[in-house]
Amino acid sequence: MFWTRSAPIQPNWAISLLPLLLVLMAGMGLGFGIIISALTTKYRDLQVLVGFGVQLCMYATPVIYPLSTMGEKYRWLLVANPMTSIVETFRYSVFGTGTFSWAYLGYSAGFTLALLLVGTAVFNRVERTFMDTV
User: Fold this and answer.
1) Which of 111, 123, 124, 133 would give a disulfide with 38, using CB separation of 3.0 to 4.6 Å?
2) Does 114 reside within a domain?
3) C-alpha 119: how far from chain center
4) Exposed e or buried b for every residue in 44-81, given b needs 16+ CB within 10 A?
5) Confidence bin at 43 (pLDDT 50/70/90)
6) 89 in a domain, yes or no?
7) More confident residue, 103 or 62
């Protein structure tokens, strides 16, 4: 068992899910990145909005605070964020605390897959006019 400043690190069986979580996060980042890069070639002001949106999403994802501290009334808002289940599963697998649910991970995986498909479609559509707008 290892210690950090705030909590002991107690890995459990869910540590084997870390590669899956990394693939989900990378896929989500790739999907959003493809969409944003395709759209910022035409709409330059989108860069400012993306910076603000990333900061807003950071507060909407339970990175600093655990999901268990939110009341039942507003928990559904956090669970709707696909990064919530990934962060909570990281917390569960490394620290032994947090919320773990296969259904929430399935939702994140489905969201990631849909995001990659939409990102590919948007990129392929905008790719034809890249040189005209750049």
Assistant:
1) 123
2) yes
3) 15
4) eeeeeeeeeeeeeeeeebbeeebbeebeeeebeebbeb
5) confident
6) yes
7) 103
Question: Which of 128, 109, 99 is CA-nearest to residue 31?
Answer: 109
- Asked if residue 76 is part of any domain, the answer here is yes
Q: Print the SS3 string covering the chain.
A: CEECCCCEECCCHHHHHHHHHHHHHHHHHHHHHHHHHHHHCCCCCHHHHHHHHHHHHHHHCCCCCCHHHCCHHHHHHHHCCHHHHHHHHHHHHHHCCCCCCHHHHHHHHHHHHHHHHHHHHHHHHHHCCHHHHC
